[in-house]
Specification:
By secondary structure, the chain is an alpha/beta fold. The chain is about 30% helix and about 25% strand. α17 runs parallel beside α18. Keywords: Cobalamin biosynthesis, Hydrolase, Methyltransferase, S-adenosyl-L-methionine, Transferase. InterPro entries: 4pyrrol_Mease, 4pyrrol_Methylase_sf, 4pyrrole_Mease_sub1, 4pyrrole_Mease_sub2, CbiG_mid, CbiG_N, Cbl_synth_CobJ/CibH_dom, CobE/GbiG_C. Pathway: Cofactor biosynthesis; adenosylcobalamin biosynthesis. This is Cobalt-precorrin 5A hydrolase/precorrin-3B C17-methyltransferase.
Length: about 575
Protein backbone atom coordinates (compact mmCIF):
# COMPACT_ATOMS: atom_id res chain seq x y z
CA UNK A 1 0.00 0.00 0.00
CA UNK A 2 1.11 3.55 -0.62
CA UNK A 3 -0.04 7.00 0.28
CA UNK A 4 1.64 8.63 -2.72
CA UNK A 5 -0.59 10.58 -5.07
CA UNK A 6 -0.77 9.38 -8.69
CA UNK A 7 1.45 11.30 -11.15
CA UNK A 8 0.06 14.58 -12.46
CA UNK A 9 -0.13 13.51 -16.11
CA UNK A 10 -1.01 9.90 -16.85
CA UNK A 11 -1.31 8.67 -20.41
CA UNK A 12 -3.45 5.58 -21.08
CA UNK A 13 -2.87 3.45 -24.16
CA UNK A 14 -5.26 0.68 -25.21
CA UNK A 15 -5.62 -1.47 -28.31
CA UNK A 16 -8.79 -3.43 -27.60
CA UNK A 17 -12.32 -2.82 -26.38
CA UNK A 18 -11.47 -4.51 -23.06
CA UNK A 19 -8.42 -2.30 -22.66
CA UNK A 20 -10.50 0.81 -23.31
CA UNK A 21 -13.04 -0.32 -20.69
CA UNK A 22 -10.25 -0.66 -18.15
CA UNK A 23 -8.95 2.76 -19.20
CA UNK A 24 -12.43 4.21 -18.62
CA UNK A 25 -12.32 2.87 -15.05
CA UNK A 26 -9.02 4.65 -14.48
CA UNK A 27 -10.16 7.97 -15.98
CA UNK A 28 -13.36 7.87 -13.92
CA UNK A 29 -11.25 7.72 -10.75
CA UNK A 30 -8.42 9.99 -11.92
CA UNK A 31 -9.60 12.93 -14.05
CA UNK A 32 -5.97 13.85 -14.80
CA UNK A 33 -5.51 10.54 -16.66
CA UNK A 34 -6.42 10.55 -20.35
CA UNK A 35 -6.60 8.05 -23.18
CA UNK A 36 -3.92 8.84 -25.75
CA UNK A 37 -4.84 8.16 -29.37
CA UNK A 38 -2.66 7.68 -32.44
CA UNK A 39 -2.74 6.28 -35.94
CA UNK A 40 -1.32 3.10 -34.44
CA UNK A 41 -0.96 1.81 -30.89
CA UNK A 42 2.80 2.32 -31.21
CA UNK A 43 2.25 5.98 -32.14
CA UNK A 44 -0.07 6.44 -29.16
CA UNK A 45 2.47 4.87 -26.82
CA UNK A 46 5.29 7.06 -28.13
CA UNK A 47 3.10 10.16 -27.71
CA UNK A 48 2.21 9.21 -24.15
CA UNK A 49 5.90 8.61 -23.42
CA UNK A 50 6.82 12.09 -24.64
CA UNK A 51 3.92 14.01 -23.07
CA UNK A 52 3.16 12.31 -19.75
CA UNK A 53 4.74 11.67 -16.36
CA UNK A 54 3.49 8.09 -16.39
CA UNK A 55 2.05 5.62 -18.89
CA UNK A 56 -0.46 2.84 -18.24
CA UNK A 57 -0.50 0.51 -21.23
CA UNK A 58 -3.34 -2.00 -21.61
CA UNK A 59 -1.18 -4.12 -23.87
CA UNK A 60 1.06 -7.17 -23.88
CA UNK A 61 4.31 -6.65 -21.98
CA UNK A 62 6.41 -7.75 -24.94
CA UNK A 63 4.77 -5.24 -27.26
CA UNK A 64 5.39 -2.41 -24.80
CA UNK A 65 9.04 -3.43 -24.39
CA UNK A 66 9.64 -3.41 -28.15
CA UNK A 67 8.03 0.01 -28.61
CA UNK A 68 9.64 1.88 -25.71
CA UNK A 69 13.11 0.28 -25.85
CA UNK A 70 14.47 2.85 -28.33
CA UNK A 71 13.06 5.67 -26.18
CA UNK A 72 14.88 4.80 -22.95
CA UNK A 73 17.17 7.53 -21.66
CA UNK A 74 17.51 7.91 -17.87
CA UNK A 75 15.46 6.24 -15.13
CA UNK A 76 15.35 9.56 -13.27
CA UNK A 77 13.62 11.33 -16.14
CA UNK A 78 11.86 8.61 -18.15
CA UNK A 79 8.15 8.25 -17.39
CA UNK A 80 6.93 5.39 -15.23
CA UNK A 81 5.36 2.57 -17.24
CA UNK A 82 2.76 0.14 -15.89
CA UNK A 83 1.37 -2.63 -18.08
CA UNK A 84 -2.09 -4.12 -17.49
CA UNK A 85 -3.12 -7.36 -19.19
CA UNK A 86 -6.30 -7.82 -21.23
CA UNK A 87 -8.27 -9.33 -18.35
CA UNK A 88 -6.95 -6.78 -15.84
CA UNK A 89 -5.58 -9.54 -13.64
CA UNK A 90 -2.16 -7.96 -13.18
CA UNK A 91 -0.67 -4.46 -13.08
CA UNK A 92 3.03 -4.80 -13.86
CA UNK A 93 5.52 -2.08 -12.85
CA UNK A 94 7.62 -2.32 -16.01
CA UNK A 95 9.83 0.80 -15.90
CA UNK A 96 10.66 3.42 -13.28
CA UNK A 97 9.92 1.33 -10.23
CA UNK A 98 11.30 3.64 -7.54
CA UNK A 99 12.66 6.67 -9.33
CA UNK A 100 9.65 7.09 -11.61
CA UNK A 101 6.99 5.92 -9.16
CA UNK A 102 5.89 2.88 -11.18
CA UNK A 103 5.80 0.61 -8.14
CA UNK A 104 3.39 2.91 -6.32
CA UNK A 105 1.37 3.45 -9.50
CA UNK A 106 1.06 -0.31 -10.08
CA UNK A 107 -0.38 -0.73 -6.58
CA UNK A 108 -2.84 2.10 -7.14
CA UNK A 109 -3.94 0.83 -10.57
CA UNK A 110 -4.31 -2.68 -9.17
CA UNK A 111 -6.56 -1.33 -6.41
CA UNK A 112 -8.75 0.43 -8.98
CA UNK A 113 -9.09 -2.60 -11.23
CA UNK A 114 -9.16 -5.29 -8.54
CA UNK A 115 -5.95 -6.64 -10.02
CA UNK A 116 -2.72 -7.89 -8.51
CA UNK A 117 0.29 -5.56 -8.55
CA UNK A 118 3.45 -7.14 -9.91
CA UNK A 119 6.58 -5.46 -8.58
CA UNK A 120 9.97 -6.99 -9.27
CA UNK A 121 12.27 -4.39 -7.74
CA UNK A 122 14.58 -6.44 -5.54
CA UNK A 123 14.21 -4.39 -2.36
CA UNK A 124 10.42 -4.45 -2.62
CA UNK A 125 10.41 -8.18 -3.26
CA UNK A 126 12.17 -8.86 0.06
CA UNK A 127 10.51 -5.95 1.90
CA UNK A 128 13.62 -3.81 2.37
CA UNK A 129 13.60 -0.03 1.97
CA UNK A 130 15.21 1.04 -1.29
CA UNK A 131 17.80 3.76 -0.81
CA UNK A 132 15.89 5.90 -3.30
CA UNK A 133 12.64 5.54 -1.34
CA UNK A 134 13.78 7.07 1.95
CA UNK A 135 12.60 10.54 0.99
CA UNK A 136 16.03 12.13 0.58
CA UNK A 137 18.27 12.50 -2.47
CA UNK A 138 20.71 9.61 -2.83
CA UNK A 139 23.92 9.72 -4.81
CA UNK A 140 26.94 7.59 -5.56
CA UNK A 141 27.10 3.81 -5.86
CA UNK A 142 23.40 3.29 -5.12
CA UNK A 143 23.08 0.03 -7.08
CA UNK A 144 26.21 -1.52 -5.57
CA UNK A 145 25.32 -0.65 -1.98
CA UNK A 146 21.71 -1.75 -2.49
CA UNK A 147 22.95 -5.09 -3.80
CA UNK A 148 25.24 -5.46 -0.78
CA UNK A 149 22.30 -4.78 1.55
CA UNK A 150 20.21 -7.37 -0.29
CA UNK A 151 23.00 -9.95 -0.20
CA UNK A 152 23.50 -9.52 3.53
CA UNK A 153 27.01 -8.14 3.20
CA UNK A 154 28.26 -5.75 5.88
CA UNK A 155 27.39 -2.14 5.13
CA UNK A 156 28.65 0.63 7.42
CA UNK A 157 26.17 3.41 8.16
CA UNK A 158 28.15 6.59 8.76
CA UNK A 159 26.09 9.65 9.64
CA UNK A 160 27.15 13.18 10.53
CA UNK A 161 24.28 13.31 13.02
CA UNK A 162 21.42 11.17 14.37
CA UNK A 163 18.93 11.53 11.53
CA UNK A 164 15.57 9.75 11.94
CA UNK A 165 16.05 6.99 9.38
CA UNK A 166 13.56 4.14 8.90
CA UNK A 167 14.38 0.62 9.97
CA UNK A 168 17.37 -0.83 8.14
CA UNK A 169 18.34 -4.53 8.06
CA UNK A 170 20.83 -5.91 10.60
CA UNK A 171 23.71 -5.98 8.12
CA UNK A 172 23.59 -2.17 7.95
CA UNK A 173 25.35 -1.11 11.13
CA UNK A 174 26.18 2.33 12.48
CA UNK A 175 29.93 2.89 12.49
CA UNK A 176 32.56 5.61 12.69
CA UNK A 177 34.51 6.71 9.66
CA UNK A 178 37.51 4.41 9.05
CA UNK A 179 39.73 5.33 6.09
CA UNK A 180 41.35 1.88 6.19
CA UNK A 181 38.05 0.03 5.71
CA UNK A 182 37.21 -0.24 2.02
CA UNK A 183 33.93 -2.10 2.41
CA UNK A 184 30.48 -0.87 1.48
CA UNK A 185 29.37 2.40 3.07
CA UNK A 186 26.13 4.33 3.37
CA UNK A 187 26.95 7.92 4.28
CA UNK A 188 24.36 10.36 5.61
CA UNK A 189 25.92 13.76 5.16
CA UNK A 190 25.58 17.18 3.56
CA UNK A 191 29.33 17.26 2.79
CA UNK A 192 30.73 16.78 -0.69
CA UNK A 193 32.10 13.23 -0.83
CA UNK A 194 34.61 11.95 -3.39
CA UNK A 195 32.87 9.22 -5.40
CA UNK A 196 33.89 5.58 -5.14
CA UNK A 197 32.38 2.27 -6.23
CA UNK A 198 31.30 1.16 -2.74
CA UNK A 199 29.76 4.31 -1.24
CA UNK A 200 26.21 5.60 -1.48
CA UNK A 201 25.38 8.99 -0.01
CA UNK A 202 22.05 10.02 1.47
CA UNK A 203 21.57 13.78 1.55
CA UNK A 204 19.64 14.86 4.68
CA UNK A 205 17.70 18.16 4.56
CA UNK A 206 20.18 19.90 6.85
CA UNK A 207 21.12 23.12 5.04
CA UNK A 208 19.26 26.43 4.87
CA UNK A 209 20.46 29.22 2.63
CA UNK A 210 19.59 32.72 3.74
CA UNK A 211 19.27 35.18 0.89
CA UNK A 212 19.20 38.95 0.78
CA UNK A 213 19.01 40.97 -2.41
CA UNK A 214 18.53 44.35 -3.99
CA UNK A 215 15.29 44.96 -5.82
CA UNK A 216 15.35 43.40 -9.30
CA UNK A 217 18.24 41.00 -8.65
CA UNK A 218 18.64 38.48 -11.52
CA UNK A 219 17.98 34.86 -10.56
CA UNK A 220 21.24 33.87 -12.24
CA UNK A 221 23.19 36.11 -9.85
CA UNK A 222 21.52 34.57 -6.80
CA UNK A 223 21.98 31.01 -8.07
CA UNK A 224 25.64 31.48 -9.02
CA UNK A 225 26.49 33.09 -5.68
CA UNK A 226 24.75 30.30 -3.77
CA UNK A 227 26.45 27.57 -5.80
CA UNK A 228 29.84 29.16 -5.23
CA UNK A 229 29.24 29.55 -1.49
CA UNK A 230 28.23 25.90 -1.15
CA UNK A 231 31.13 24.66 -3.25
CA UNK A 232 33.70 26.73 -1.34
CA UNK A 233 32.38 25.24 1.93
CA UNK A 234 32.35 21.67 0.57
CA UNK A 235 28.57 21.38 0.91
CA UNK A 236 26.24 19.57 -1.45
CA UNK A 237 23.19 21.49 -2.74
CA UNK A 238 21.10 18.30 -2.57
CA UNK A 239 20.92 18.87 1.20
CA UNK A 240 19.27 22.27 0.86
CA UNK A 241 16.01 22.22 2.80
CA UNK A 242 14.84 25.68 1.83
CA UNK A 243 15.82 29.23 1.02
CA UNK A 244 14.96 31.86 3.62
CA UNK A 245 14.67 35.62 3.43
CA UNK A 246 12.79 38.63 4.78
CA UNK A 247 9.05 39.08 4.30
CA UNK A 248 9.63 42.17 2.18
CA UNK A 249 11.57 40.02 -0.29
CA UNK A 250 8.84 37.40 -0.64
CA UNK A 251 7.88 38.69 -4.08
CA UNK A 252 11.44 39.13 -5.34
CA UNK A 253 11.45 37.17 -8.60
CA UNK A 254 15.19 36.48 -8.56
CA UNK A 255 14.98 34.80 -5.15
CA UNK A 256 11.72 32.98 -5.81
CA UNK A 257 12.86 31.68 -9.19
CA UNK A 258 16.08 30.40 -7.64
CA UNK A 259 14.09 28.45 -5.05
CA UNK A 260 11.84 27.04 -7.77
CA UNK A 261 14.82 25.99 -9.87
CA UNK A 262 16.34 24.19 -6.88
CA UNK A 263 13.00 22.55 -6.06
CA UNK A 264 12.94 23.87 -2.48
CA UNK A 265 10.44 26.12 -0.67
CA UNK A 266 11.05 29.78 0.08
CA UNK A 267 10.51 30.70 3.75
CA UNK A 268 10.13 34.32 4.79
CA UNK A 269 10.43 36.04 8.18
CA UNK A 270 9.37 39.49 9.41
CA UNK A 271 12.14 41.96 10.06
CA UNK A 272 11.40 41.89 13.81
CA UNK A 273 12.17 38.15 14.00
CA UNK A 274 15.31 38.52 11.95
CA UNK A 275 16.50 41.41 14.09
CA UNK A 276 16.28 39.26 17.23
CA UNK A 277 18.83 36.72 15.91
CA UNK A 278 22.42 37.17 17.03
CA UNK A 279 24.64 37.16 13.90
CA UNK A 280 28.38 37.63 13.42
CA UNK A 281 28.14 40.30 10.73
CA UNK A 282 25.35 42.79 11.46
CA UNK A 283 25.02 45.85 9.23
CA UNK A 284 23.54 49.19 10.13
CA UNK A 285 23.11 49.89 6.42
CA UNK A 286 20.88 46.84 6.13
CA UNK A 287 19.01 47.82 9.29
CA UNK A 288 18.24 51.24 7.82
CA UNK A 289 16.99 49.68 4.58
CA UNK A 290 14.87 46.76 5.83
CA UNK A 291 14.54 47.11 9.60
CA UNK A 292 16.98 44.37 10.64
CA UNK A 293 20.79 44.35 10.79
CA UNK A 294 20.88 40.96 9.02
CA UNK A 295 18.80 39.22 6.40
CA UNK A 296 20.92 36.41 4.96
CA UNK A 297 22.63 35.21 8.14
CA UNK A 298 19.58 35.65 10.37
CA UNK A 299 17.25 33.93 7.89
CA UNK A 300 19.69 31.03 7.45
CA UNK A 301 19.79 30.52 11.22
CA UNK A 302 16.01 30.78 11.67
CA UNK A 303 15.44 28.29 8.87
CA UNK A 304 11.94 26.90 8.30
CA UNK A 305 11.01 26.47 11.97
CA UNK A 306 12.39 29.60 13.64
CA UNK A 307 14.83 27.66 15.84
CA UNK A 308 18.06 29.57 15.48
CA UNK A 309 19.48 27.88 18.59
CA UNK A 310 19.49 24.54 16.72
CA UNK A 311 21.52 25.89 13.79
CA UNK A 312 25.19 26.52 13.09
CA UNK A 313 26.30 29.14 10.61
CA UNK A 314 28.65 27.43 8.16
CA UNK A 315 28.96 30.19 5.57
CA UNK A 316 28.83 33.78 6.76
CA UNK A 317 27.30 36.34 4.48
CA UNK A 318 28.98 36.61 1.13
CA UNK A 319 27.84 39.09 -1.49
CA UNK A 320 27.85 40.17 -5.10
CA UNK A 321 26.66 43.49 -6.42
CA UNK A 322 22.96 42.69 -5.83
CA UNK A 323 22.79 39.47 -3.78
CA UNK A 324 23.90 38.18 -0.39
CA UNK A 325 23.81 34.59 0.84
CA UNK A 326 24.68 32.72 4.02
CA UNK A 327 24.33 29.02 4.83
CA UNK A 328 23.46 27.35 8.14
CA UNK A 329 23.30 23.71 9.14
CA UNK A 330 20.25 22.72 11.19
CA UNK A 331 20.44 19.87 13.65
CA UNK A 332 18.28 16.80 13.01
CA UNK A 333 15.11 16.41 14.99
CA UNK A 334 13.47 13.21 16.12
CA UNK A 335 10.26 12.18 14.40
CA UNK A 336 7.17 10.98 16.26
CA UNK A 337 4.24 9.75 14.21
CA UNK A 338 1.10 9.24 16.29
CA UNK A 339 -0.82 6.68 14.27
CA UNK A 340 -4.46 5.67 14.52
CA UNK A 341 -4.95 2.09 13.28
CA UNK A 342 -8.71 2.31 12.85
CA UNK A 343 -11.31 0.11 14.53
CA UNK A 344 -9.60 -3.18 13.69
CA UNK A 345 -10.30 -4.30 10.12
CA UNK A 346 -7.22 -4.04 7.90
CA UNK A 347 -9.21 -2.43 5.08
CA UNK A 348 -10.21 0.39 7.46
CA UNK A 349 -6.55 1.13 8.19
CA UNK A 350 -5.47 4.12 6.11
CA UNK A 351 -2.62 3.94 3.57
CA UNK A 352 -0.95 6.80 5.42
CA UNK A 353 -0.95 4.78 8.62
CA UNK A 354 0.75 1.90 6.81
CA UNK A 355 3.31 4.26 5.26
CA UNK A 356 4.18 5.70 8.68
CA UNK A 357 4.57 2.25 10.20
CA UNK A 358 6.99 1.35 7.41
CA UNK A 359 8.78 4.69 7.80
CA UNK A 360 9.50 4.08 11.49
CA UNK A 361 12.58 2.54 13.03
CA UNK A 362 10.80 2.12 16.39
CA UNK A 363 7.13 1.25 16.90
CA UNK A 364 5.56 1.62 20.34
CA UNK A 365 2.15 0.31 21.33
CA UNK A 366 -0.19 -1.93 23.26
CA UNK A 367 0.71 -5.56 22.70
CA UNK A 368 -2.61 -6.52 21.11
CA UNK A 369 -2.45 -3.59 18.67
CA UNK A 370 1.14 -4.41 17.72
CA UNK A 371 0.04 -7.95 16.88
CA UNK A 372 -2.31 -6.45 14.27
CA UNK A 373 0.50 -4.70 12.38
CA UNK A 374 3.62 -6.87 12.70
CA UNK A 375 3.19 -8.04 9.11
CA UNK A 376 3.41 -4.40 7.95
CA UNK A 377 6.66 -3.52 9.72
CA UNK A 378 9.94 -3.62 7.85
CA UNK A 379 12.66 -6.07 8.91
CA UNK A 380 14.82 -4.50 11.57
CA UNK A 381 12.02 -2.44 13.14
CA UNK A 382 12.39 -2.30 16.91
CA UNK A 383 9.11 -2.96 18.73
CA UNK A 384 8.36 -1.69 22.24
CA UNK A 385 5.30 -3.50 23.55
CA UNK A 386 3.38 -3.16 26.81
CA UNK A 387 0.07 -4.27 28.28
CA UNK A 388 -3.16 -2.61 29.32
CA UNK A 389 -2.91 0.28 31.74
CA UNK A 390 0.59 1.40 30.69
CA UNK A 391 -0.48 4.38 28.58
CA UNK A 392 1.79 6.89 30.28
CA UNK A 393 4.78 4.55 30.10
CA UNK A 394 4.18 4.01 26.37
CA UNK A 395 3.88 7.74 25.77
CA UNK A 396 7.09 8.46 27.66
CA UNK A 397 8.95 5.66 25.84
CA UNK A 398 7.87 6.91 22.42
CA UNK A 399 8.86 10.50 23.21
CA UNK A 400 12.22 9.41 24.64
CA UNK A 401 13.02 7.45 21.48
CA UNK A 402 12.06 10.40 19.27
CA UNK A 403 14.03 12.84 21.44
CA UNK A 404 17.07 10.62 20.83
CA UNK A 405 16.73 11.38 17.12
CA UNK A 406 14.89 8.26 15.96
CA UNK A 407 11.89 7.81 13.68
CA UNK A 408 9.12 6.54 15.96
CA UNK A 409 5.53 5.47 15.43
CA UNK A 410 3.23 5.39 18.47
CA UNK A 411 0.12 3.43 17.64
CA UNK A 412 -3.39 3.32 19.03
CA UNK A 413 -6.70 1.93 17.92
CA UNK A 414 -9.32 4.02 16.17
CA UNK A 415 -8.08 7.59 15.96
CA UNK A 416 -5.05 8.19 18.16
CA UNK A 417 -6.44 11.57 19.18
CA UNK A 418 -9.77 10.23 20.51
CA UNK A 419 -9.36 8.73 24.01
CA UNK A 420 -6.04 7.31 22.83
CA UNK A 421 -2.30 7.90 22.77
CA UNK A 422 -1.93 11.31 21.10
CA UNK A 423 -2.84 13.34 24.17
CA UNK A 424 -0.50 11.67 26.71
CA UNK A 425 2.35 11.62 24.20
CA UNK A 426 2.07 15.26 23.22
CA UNK A 427 2.06 16.29 26.86
CA UNK A 428 5.71 15.18 26.93
CA UNK A 429 6.85 15.97 23.39
CA UNK A 430 8.88 19.18 23.35
CA UNK A 431 10.52 21.30 20.65
CA UNK A 432 13.18 18.67 19.92
CA UNK A 433 10.64 16.50 18.10
CA UNK A 434 8.76 16.79 14.85
CA UNK A 435 5.28 15.35 15.39
CA UNK A 436 3.16 13.84 12.61
CA UNK A 437 -0.47 13.03 13.32
CA UNK A 438 -2.09 10.24 11.29
CA UNK A 439 -5.88 10.19 11.67
CA UNK A 440 -7.73 6.92 11.92
CA UNK A 441 -11.33 5.74 11.70
CA UNK A 442 -12.45 6.02 15.29
CA UNK A 443 -14.78 3.49 16.92
CA UNK A 444 -17.66 5.96 16.92
CA UNK A 445 -17.55 6.23 13.13
CA UNK A 446 -17.31 2.48 12.68
CA UNK A 447 -20.23 1.98 15.07
CA UNK A 448 -22.26 4.73 13.42
CA UNK A 449 -21.84 3.16 10.00
CA UNK A 450 -23.10 -0.18 11.33
CA UNK A 451 -26.08 1.41 13.08
CA UNK A 452 -27.15 3.54 10.11
CA UNK A 453 -26.88 7.33 10.39
CA UNK A 454 -27.14 8.18 14.09
CA UNK A 455 -24.52 10.94 13.83
CA UNK A 456 -26.37 12.96 11.21
CA UNK A 457 -26.71 15.95 13.52
CA UNK A 458 -24.86 17.34 16.54
CA UNK A 459 -23.36 14.71 18.79
CA UNK A 460 -21.07 14.41 21.81
CA UNK A 461 -18.41 11.86 22.73
CA UNK A 462 -18.11 11.01 26.43
CA UNK A 463 -15.98 8.49 28.28
CA UNK A 464 -17.59 6.83 31.27
CA UNK A 465 -14.26 5.74 32.76
CA UNK A 466 -13.69 7.47 36.08
CA UNK A 467 -10.14 6.16 36.42
CA UNK A 468 -8.74 9.54 35.38
CA UNK A 469 -11.82 11.79 35.53
CA UNK A 470 -13.90 12.12 38.73
CA UNK A 471 -17.45 10.82 38.37
CA UNK A 472 -18.99 14.13 39.39
CA UNK A 473 -17.27 15.75 36.37
CA UNK A 474 -18.49 12.99 34.07
CA UNK A 475 -22.00 13.31 35.49
CA UNK A 476 -22.07 17.05 34.78
CA UNK A 477 -21.00 16.44 31.21
CA UNK A 478 -23.62 13.74 30.66
CA UNK A 479 -26.25 16.10 32.07
CA UNK A 480 -25.11 18.87 29.71
CA UNK A 481 -25.33 16.51 26.73
CA UNK A 482 -28.80 15.42 27.85
CA UNK A 483 -30.04 18.98 28.29
CA UNK A 484 -28.52 19.99 24.94
CA UNK A 485 -30.30 17.08 23.23
CA UNK A 486 -27.10 15.80 21.64
CA UNK A 487 -26.77 12.32 20.23
CA UNK A 488 -24.45 10.88 22.86
CA UNK A 489 -21.71 8.29 22.35
CA UNK A 490 -20.25 6.50 25.34
CA UNK A 491 -16.68 5.19 25.16
CA UNK A 492 -15.37 2.90 27.92
CA UNK A 493 -18.99 2.32 28.92
CA UNK A 494 -18.79 -0.62 31.32
CA UNK A 495 -16.28 -3.06 32.77
CA UNK A 496 -16.36 -5.67 35.49
CA UNK A 497 -14.91 -3.17 37.96
CA UNK A 498 -17.13 -0.29 36.75
CA UNK A 499 -20.58 -1.79 36.32
CA UNK A 500 -22.90 1.01 37.52
CA UNK A 501 -21.81 4.10 35.58
CA UNK A 502 -23.61 3.25 32.35
CA UNK A 503 -26.93 2.74 34.11
CA UNK A 504 -26.53 6.04 35.90
CA UNK A 505 -25.70 7.85 32.62
CA UNK A 506 -28.67 6.29 30.83
CA UNK A 507 -30.92 7.42 33.66
CA UNK A 508 -29.76 11.02 33.21
CA UNK A 509 -30.43 10.86 29.46
CA UNK A 510 -33.81 9.19 30.00
CA UNK A 511 -34.96 12.19 32.01
CA UNK A 512 -34.54 14.34 28.86
CA UNK A 513 -35.55 11.86 26.13
CA UNK A 514 -38.74 10.02 25.13
CA UNK A 515 -38.63 6.44 26.44
CA UNK A 516 -38.60 5.05 22.88
CA UNK A 517 -35.43 6.97 21.92
CA UNK A 518 -33.23 4.47 20.02
CA UNK A 519 -30.00 3.22 21.55
CA UNK A 520 -27.40 1.22 19.61
CA UNK A 521 -24.66 -0.92 21.10
CA UNK A 522 -21.85 -2.02 18.79
CA UNK A 523 -19.31 -4.50 20.07
CA UNK A 524 -16.02 -5.18 18.25
CA UNK A 525 -16.88 -2.94 15.32
CA UNK A 526 -15.14 -4.29 12.18
CA UNK A 527 -13.39 -7.01 14.18
CA UNK A 528 -14.09 -10.70 14.73
CA UNK A 529 -17.12 -11.10 16.96
CA UNK A 530 -18.78 -7.94 15.70
CA UNK A 531 -22.26 -7.51 17.16
CA UNK A 532 -24.95 -4.85 16.79
CA UNK A 533 -27.72 -4.54 19.37
CA UNK A 534 -30.66 -2.13 19.17
CA UNK A 535 -32.79 -1.05 22.13
CA UNK A 536 -34.29 2.12 23.61
CA UNK A 537 -33.36 4.24 26.61
CA UNK A 538 -36.17 2.50 28.49
CA UNK A 539 -35.22 -1.09 27.54
CA UNK A 540 -31.42 -1.25 27.22
CA UNK A 541 -29.91 -3.79 29.59
CA UNK A 542 -26.42 -2.53 30.60
CA UNK A 543 -25.34 -6.16 30.99
CA UNK A 544 -25.03 -6.50 27.19
CA UNK A 545 -22.31 -3.80 27.21
CA UNK A 546 -18.60 -4.19 27.96
CA UNK A 547 -15.32 -2.37 27.30
CA UNK A 548 -15.28 -3.57 23.68
CA UNK A 549 -18.54 -1.73 23.05
CA UNK A 550 -19.59 1.73 21.95
CA UNK A 551 -23.03 2.90 23.07
CA UNK A 552 -24.88 5.39 20.87
CA UNK A 553 -27.91 7.11 22.43
CA UNK A 554 -30.07 9.06 20.00
CA UNK A 555 -31.37 12.58 20.43
CA UNK A 556 -35.09 13.25 20.72
CA UNK A 557 -35.20 13.43 16.90
CA UNK A 558 -33.43 10.11 16.27
CA UNK A 559 -35.70 7.40 14.94
CA UNK A 560 -35.55 3.87 13.58
CA UNK A 561 -36.07 3.58 9.82
CA UNK A 562 -36.11 0.00 8.47
CA UNK A 563 -34.15 -1.14 11.49
CA UNK A 564 -31.51 1.59 11.20
CA UNK A 565 -30.87 4.53 13.52
CA UNK A 566 -31.30 7.85 11.71
CA UNK A 567 -30.84 11.34 13.12
CA UNK A 568 -32.32 13.81 10.58
CA UNK A 569 -30.30 16.83 9.52
CA UNK A 570 -33.45 18.98 9.46
CA UNK A 571 -33.36 19.75 5.75
CA UNK A 572 -36.38 21.53 4.35
CA UNK A 573 -37.34 18.61 2.17
CA UNK A 574 -38.12 16.68 5.36
CA UNK A 575 -41.09 18.99 5.92
Amino acid sequence: MTDQNPPARIGLVAATAAGRRHADTVTAAWPHARLVEGETVADALRTAWADCDAVIAFLATGAVVRIVAPLLDDKRTDPAVVVVDEAARHAVALLGGHAGGANALAEQVAALLDARPVITTATDAVDLPGLDTLGWPVQGAVAAVSRAILDGEPVRLIADADWPLPALPPNVRAAAEDPTDHGYRLLVTDRVVPPDERTAVLRPPSLVAGVGASRGVPAAEVAELLQRALADAGLDPASLRCLATADIKADEAGIRNTADALGVPLVTWPATRLAAVDVPHPSEVVRAAVGTPSVAEAAALLGPDGRADEATLLVGKTATAMATVAVARHAPRGRLAVVGLGPGATDLRTPRAVAELRRAAVVVGLDQYLDQVRDVLRPGTRVLSSGLGAEEARARAAVAEAAAGRAVALIGSGDAGVYAMASPALEYADERIDVVGVPGVTAALAAGALLGAPLGHDHAYLSLSDLHTPWDVIERRVTAAAEGDFVTLFYNPRSRARDWQLGKALGILAAHRPPDTPVGVVRNASRPGERVHLATVATLDPAVVDMYSVVVVGSSDTRLVAGRMVTPRGYRWRS
